[in-house]
Amino acid sequence: SDIGSQKDRVVTEEEWLQKWETGNTGFHKEQGHPLFQKYLDVLLNGRSGLRLFFPLCGKAVEMKWLADMGHSVVGVEVSEQALKEFFAEHNLPYCEEPVPEIAGAKKLQSTSGNISLYCCSIYDLSSLIVGKFDGVWDRGALVAVNPRDRQRYVSLMITLMEKKSSYLLVTVSYDPNKHKGPPFYVPESEIKRLFG
């Protein structure tokens, strides 16, 4: 696949944490992502009480919207600051507990129990820890993972999906030789190859 000069680009966990610390989070959408509203029906498909997964969730406002609609939301994010900001900005009380299966990981859970956010690397998760999901809102995860880790990421995502799961994916299209990413360019042909 022609992803230009991005093939070997690596963004470290420290760089992501620094983006949150310095407020360099242009990827965060205060009003939610417009494509979320547009394709929400496709994600939910008339179903209620779903378990929905937000990979690399940041402090996505859509998590609160879905929880308010009666769904159960699980997210994962390396930045504890982002997760704490999410709860603070929505005035949601939460409790914090360690995740015994993952060294150093924490789970921040709303006291209502319908939002559980894991603070760890997404690659530390498994269906044994977080269960399986009826839907995934991948708004900026596939385009954020390092190109060399895409197969690993997609393989994990597939193991987290129920049989009739919906996967809503947002990518960006541009000339990968003109921008080093992230967000990274993931051509449609590669998406088809990765997800099969």
**Helix fraction by DSSP (H/I, runs of at least 4):** 25-40%
Our Rg estimate from Cα atoms comes to: 16 Å
Strand content: 15-25%
Quickly give the structural class: alpha/beta
End-to-end Cα distance, whole Å, is 15 Å
What coarse outline follows from CA principal-axis ratios? globular
Major β-sheet strand ordering: 3-4-5-2-1-6-7
Q: Nutshell version of this structure?
A:
Helix content is 30%, strand content 20%. It is an alpha/beta fold and 196 residues long.
Textual characterization of the structure:
With 196 residues, the chain is α/β, with parallel strands linked by helices. The chain is built from seven helices and seven strands. The chain has a single domain (50-195), classed as Vaccinia Virus protein VP39 (Rossmann fold), CATH 3.40.50. The chain is globular and about 45 Å long. Helices cover 30% and strands 20% of the residues. InterPro entries: SAM-dependent_MTases_sf, Thiopurine_S-MeTrfase, TPMT. One of its GO terms (biological process) is methylation. Its main location: cytoplasm.
Q: Could you list some keywords that capture this structure?
A:
7-stranded mixed sheet, about 200 residues, globular, about 30% helix, 7 helices, alpha/beta, single chain, Rossmann fold
